[in-house]
Amino acid sequence: MNRKFISGFLTAVFCLVFVFSVAAQTNVPSREDIKAKRAELNIQIKNERDAAKKRIETAREEAKNAVETRRAELKNKISKLRDEKKKQIATRLDEQMARLNARWTDHFNNVLDRLSEIIGKIELRADKAQAMGKDVSAVRTAIQNAKTAIESARVAVEAQAKKTYIATFTSEDKLGVAFKTVREQLHKDLFGLRDGAMKSAREAVKNALQALKSVPRVDEEPKATTTPSQ
Amino acid sequence: METLNKTWILILIAVVVLALVWVAWQYGFFNQLVTKEEALISDNDTTVEIDNDLNAVDIGNPDEDLKQLDADLNQL
Questions:
Q1: How many CB pairs under 8 A join A and B?
Q2: Is A120 part of the contact surface with chain B (CB cutoff 8 Å)?
Q3: Residue closest to A10 by CA, chosen among B2, B12, B17, B18
Q4: Taking CB atoms and an 8 Å cutoff, what residues of chain B touch A100?
Q5: Are the Cβ atoms of A23 and B16 closer than 8 angstroms?
Q6: CB-CB: which of A2, A118, A190 is closest to B53?
């Protein structure tokens, strides 16, 4: 009886060893590799996102401290205006311009976060294509270019976040001109950023996607029995 | 003798259970049970889906916001 159990046990162990080795040679490493890559990219993007957000917050804080005296001067000048309505409008405009710059730099930063995620997807799809033996060298170059463009745009957004828009005027009759000048500067800066670094980043991501699309049958998933060739 | 048989049966069950756990782990079954952190990159990574994602990215136009300032500016 005892021998019967020993032989049964040994047979079971041999069977399990066989199953383990077969399982290890099938799709598991391939799927695991892709999963691991996705997890790695998620962490990378999250870290980039958090770091960019932090940099912008620091830039804003620094800018706020740097112009504290000028802002206090402006508030003081506004408070001395005789026209009560103009006083209210000038106060509101000063707040609105600061808020507008903050809102748009936040928006641009969010756009760059989204573009980073899309580049992550392109990278993952390129990995899958490479695992199926396809040539993705052009895609890799385009991905790298897009990452550089996104990083440049992040620097530009950070520089924009540092900017402050404070009107300076000497007399009440020059109040309108002073605020219009600041408004024009804000307009020029926001459009410069949007049409420059931001559009370049988007274009670079688009180019990476085009490069990916030019890989034949790129949307095919790696087959279950395929082991990725590194 | 009977105790010895029971011991072998328990060892056999333990080995089988361990094997099942190992196989389930290899296939990522447990990952589905664990609450994951927000996944930034989803499984939807075909070129069509990436294309849709990219088309949905709107860089925006600050013009509308800036125009809102003009109403106040004209009153100064």
A1: 146
A2: yes
A3: B12
A4: 62, 65-66, 69
A5: no
A6: A118
Dist. CA A192–CA A188, nearest whole Å: 6
pTM of the model: 0.75
**Is the Cβ pair A12, B45 closer than 8 Å?**
no
Interface confidence: ipTM more than 0.90: no
Q: What is the pLDDT of residues B12-21, one digit of tens each?
A: 999 999 999 8
- Tell me the residue range of the domain where A175 lies: 34-213
| Residues of B whose CB is below 8 A from A124 | 41, 45
Residue A75 lies in a domain: yes
Given a contact cutoff of 8 angstroms between Cβ atoms, the answer to whether B69 and A97 are in contact is yes
Question: CA-based Rg of chain B, rounded to a whole angstrom?
Answer: 31
Nearest Cα residue in chain B from A45: B40
Please answer yes or no on whether A23 and B23 come within 8 Å at the CB atom: yes
Please tell me the total count of domains within chain A: 1
Average confidence (pLDDT) over A34-42: 86
Residue A48 within any structural domain of the chain: yes
Condensed to tens digits (0 to 9), the pLDDT of residues A145-191 reads: 999 999 999 999 999 999 999 998 888 888 899 999 999 999 999 99
Q: For B41, which of A111, A124, A180 is closest by C-beta distance?
A: A124
For A121-139, write each residue's pLDDT tens digit: 999 999 999 988 999 999 9
Long-range contacts of A222-226 (CB under 8 A, 24+ apart): A222/A27, A222/A30, A222/A34, A222/A128, A222/A131, A222/A132, A223/A27, A223/A132, A224/A26, A224/A27, A225/A26, A225/A27, A226/A27, A226/A30, A226/A131, A226/A132
Report the gap between the CA of B50 and the closest CA in chain A (Å): 7
